[in-house]
Amino acid sequence: MSSDHLTRRGLLQGSAALAAASPVAAQAQAAAVATPRRNGGSAMMPVELTVNGREVHLQLDPRTSLLDTLREHLHLTGTKKGCDHGQCGACTVIVEGRRINSCLTLAVMHDGESITTIEGLGTPDKLHPMQKAFIVHDGYQCGYCTPGQICSAVAVLDEIKAGIPSHATTELNDVSLNDAELRERMSGNICRCAAYPNIIAAMRDVAGEKVA
Amino acid sequence: MKTFTYERATSVQAAAKAAASVQGARFIAGGTNLLDLMKLQIETPTHLIDVNHLGLDRIEKTDGGGVRIGALVRNTDLAADKSVRQDYAVLSRALLAGASGQLRNKATTGGNLLQRTRCTYFYDTRMPCNKRQPGSGCGALQGMNRSLAILGVSDACIAQHPSDMAVAMRLLDAQVDTMGADGAARAIPIADFHLLPGDTPHRESALRPGEIITSVTLPKPIGGTHVYRKVRDRASYAFALVSVAAVFGKDGTARFAFGGIGAKPWRTQEADAAAKSGAKAVAEAALAGARTTHHNDFKKTLVERTLASLYRQREARA
């Protein structure tokens, strides 16, 4: 694994304070922590990202995944590390308007691009409709997968609106919104607590569908 | 992850040249397979050449009435493309049966063709694997090999090819377009693109050092009814135990390609020729020379039953 693990202890010590801080404060802090680090092997590379509407300039080991960049360098710890192999979806973020697994991509590959994380979707004072719906419909239990679920859910509704078909689409040219579609499209986000039915209810609610 | 240097390629030829001249260099496109393997130190490139910005992301009609798919077209975009949905529905269906929404947003056409096996012995660096470490042996031959290949295998390797997309492309007689380090273009029929393991399972494609995939060309549409049936342990987001890509013609002819059972996307003339004789005959023809183990012998039955299901569905709609 990468040397980014070395900073985890320090990060955990500060995490309680960060959790209490508003996302705006966390973003402001992002610029302050974006300082060059030394490492044993790879030459550091400059990377410029727009994260949740804010430009950040970083010096990164090219091995740094986008996920570790967000969590360890920008201290945006809403995005979660589950499997770190693209199997669980906890790290899902929206890059240039599309949901991806941030663990399976390098930050240097996204130089100049825009990233939206759970912190950028809404704030505790002004929740994104999907965040609100997850609360209303109890779309989580432990909550660890929730930021990834919500980022994915927001993007899924956009994908359906754009007419992008899925494995559950009966006629490839007639994309509609139903439970089978939502379940199929959300299959890249695993929830160990099995909050799936309530996640579907939250998504239907946001999509303006009647919820049973 | 081992250290590496990184560059963003500015032209296809520069990328090919760099890949041929730097020892241990690899192209990176979507990265969804390569980075996973790099984290496990199964892949340890010394230099990554990022090919994401080479403009190979278009889908165009060809003079021959077919379609040219840029190597960097994402799986999501290829599956959703209007002409692909219309004329090559089996390809859309195969793509949509693979991976997750997040992965399809990243994974590319060229990268999907080159994705590596999901054999658990290839992934477990504590186990011998001739593909990962030539000459070390094969842990899978006598091991837990339920998901592994039964066709095109050898004493050195029984790894299955994991791609759904490539199965549909094999069915459609696609051609893989490349550029070599010397700037020369080459067209490789997909039937010749993936190599069988033989004694050299670490060699997986016909690509030469530095050679880069620029596009995949599909011949003009063949019409017919397109289907892709994937059988797996979960309803979504799992690799195939068996998959069948098929195009049924109105006159009772059909062509078939298979995933999950071969060391490469599997298609035989004999299976296509047996189309009018029904599922059992097609299965027998496709499975000629199959070499199974105690754990994966079920795949033969599963192939026949999957075909039977497609035939029944076809009759019901006729």
Automatic annotation (TrEMBL), chain A:
User: What name is this protein filed under?
Assistant: Aldehyde dehydrogenase iron-sulfur subunit
List the GO molecular function terms: 2 iron, 2 sulfur cluster binding; carboxylate reductase activity; metal ion binding
Q: Which domain of life is it from?
A: Bacteria
Q: Which InterPro entries match?
A: 2Fe-2S-bd (IPR002888), 2Fe-2S-bd_dom_sf (IPR036884), 2Fe-2S_ferredoxin-like_sf (IPR036010), 2Fe-2S_ferredoxin-type (IPR001041), 2Fe2S_fd_BS (IPR006058), Aldehyde_Oxdr_Iron-Sulfur (IPR052914), Beta-grasp_dom_sf (IPR012675), TAT_signal (IPR006311)
Which PROSITE patterns would you find in this protein's record?
A: 2FE2S_FER_1, 2FE2S_FER_2, TAT
Which keywords accompany this UniProt record?
Answer: 2Fe-2S, Iron, Iron-sulfur, Metal-binding, Oxidoreductase
Where is the 2Fe-2S ferredoxin-type domain positioned along the sequence? Answer: 45-121
Q: What Pfam families does the record tag this protein with?
A: Fer2, Fer2_2
Q: Supply the EC number(s).
A: 1.2.99.6
| Cellular component GO terms held in the UniProt record | periplasmic space
Species of origin: Sphingobium psychrophilum
TrEMBL record, chain B:
Q: Name one Pfam family in it.
A: FAD_binding_5
> Which keywords describe this protein according to UniProt?
FAD, Flavoprotein
Q: What is this protein called?
A: Xanthine dehydrogenase family protein subunit M
Mind listing the GO molecular function terms for this protein? FAD binding; oxidoreductase activity
Give the source lineage, highest ranks first. Bacteria, Pseudomonadati, Pseudomonadota, Alphaproteobacteria, Sphingomonadales
Domain of life where this protein originates: Bacteria
Gene3D superfamilies in alphabetical order = 3.30.465.10, CO dehydrogenase flavoprotein, C-terminal domain (3.30.390.50), Uridine Diphospho-n-acetylenolpyruvylglucosamine Reductase, domain 2 (3.30.43.10)
Annotated source species: Sphingobium psychrophilum
User: Residue limits of the FAD-binding PCMH-type domain?
Assistant: 1-223
